[in-house]
Specification:
The protein is 78% helix and 0% strand. The chain has 249 residues and is mostly helical.
Length: 249
């Protein structure tokens, strides 16, 4: 961000009218007057100080909005593989865009690249959610629960206590089955979606070599479909996570 752009951020506009900025202007001006400088020079000095304050606020606003870092090693397998593959696909496409001369073709690739960025971010979100669910699943010892249920079968004359315990154990087993199903489904769908994303980038490279710009429309549509399906999968995992929250387990 250049110096002028810093004054166009919301943070810079807030800083421009803040009491602190006015205090900086007045304080510096007074100090310069007390130092024996003429009034016009003191006013100019105050303006310079206030301007620096506003520019600094605008610069901090820009640096605070850094994109989230995607780290494949922050999740376990198989999610790590999916994230790494998505990042590799994005890097391949970035190389393709970089090697394409400026012009309409390059602009079309840039548009497609924004869709790929969304797909990679969704892949990262899905992988983290699925990894969290995998952690939840590891906390449910289904073998121990099944043994405890089996031991209740020999209890004669069921009571409210035994029936309540049985219901709780069966609910835990049901929770484990739902989480298993969600994890397996996410693994299968994410594997397919990653493959489709890689296929789209390969097609884009081929079309670029052939100079077939209209053909990129189909590539863009395919990537949009991948993004839509990833978003649906992400939302489905969120629902599972809410359903299997602490109040349900």
């Amino acid at each position: 961000m250049n110096f002028i752009d810093r004054f166009r951020t919301p943070a810079a506009l807030r800083a421009l009218t803040s009491p602190f900025t006015l205090a900086v202007f007045g304080g510096v001006g007074v100090m310069l007057i007390l130092g024996g400088l003429p009034l016009p020079v003191a006013i100019a000095g105050g303006l310079v100080a206030a301007t620096a304050r506003v520019a600094s606020a605008g610069g901090r606003s820009s640096s605070a909005k850094r994109p989230e870092r995607i780290d494949p090693f922050a999740v376990g397998e198989p999610w790590r593989v999916f994230v790494r593959e998505a990042l590799q696909v994005r890097a391949r496409f970035a190389d393709l865009v970089h090697d394409t001369p400026a012009g309409p073709f390059r602009e079309r690739l840039d548009e497609i690249g924004r869709g790929i960025d969304l797909a990679v971010k969704d892949c990262w979100s899905i992988s983290r959610q699925a990894d969290d669910l995998s952690g939840v699943r590891r906390q449910i010892d289904t073998q121990a629960i099944s043994r405890r249920l089996a031991s209740l079968e020999g209890v004669s004359g069921p009571t409210d206590t035994t029936e309540g315990l049985r219901a709780s154990l069966e609910a835990q087993l049901s929770s484990a089955r739902r989480v298993d199903s969600a994890i397996d489904g996410a693994r299968g769908r994410l594997e397919v979606l990653d493959a489709r994303l890689a296929e789209s980038v390969t097609r884009a490279a081929e079309l670029t070599t052939l100079g077939d710009q209209p053909g990129l429309t189909g590539v863009a549509a395919d990537i949009d479909d991948v993004v839509d399906e990833m978003e649906a999968l992400r939302q489905a995992l969120e629902e599972i996570d809410r359903a299997e929250g602490p109040g349900e387990r």
